[in-house]
Amino acid sequence: MLSRAACSTSRRLVPALSVLGSRQKHSLPDLPYDYGALEPHINAQIMQLHHSKHHAAYVNNLNVAEEKYREALEKGELLEAIKRDFGSFAKFKEKLTAVSVGVQGSGWGWLGFNKEQGRLQIAACSNQDPLQGTTGLIPLLGIDVWEHAYYLQYKNVRPDYLKAIWNVINWENVTARYTACSK
Predict the structure, then answer these.
(1) Does the annotation flag 54 for ligand binding?
(2) What pTM was estimated for this model as a whole?
(3) 41 labelled as ligand-binding?
């Protein structure tokens, strides 16, 4: 069980910041068949138009959107605060993951904002202990490490769950929370 002293220590974004930053551009896959293979039901001209124009536009627009989002994140206040307080996003991720793995029994790993210091901090809380009530930190991101959060899929391998959780964090929400409390 962690002591109280140990506790004091935006739209849905599916890929984590580090994944988004290292992602290769998407490309239009080749069809596994000729454009005319579906005739007479769907003619080759329609297939060619939909694949080479419409589908290609979706792929290109996805690449543009991801690039714009990555640029916005790189310029964002939250990412700058993470770099300032932890050195890099990778170091932040490593530290929050390690703290979360280290929770004995059930509890939470947290990214919180220390209003007095104007800095981000990582903390862990046992059981249902609230972050703000036990540490004074304003909660920005909480990672549930109670077994019910992962046991059916990851069994008792908490590190695998924590590796996967980074792919589903809602960074828009975390950013909004940071922006609201850091003013």
Answers:
(1) no
(2) 0.62
(3) no
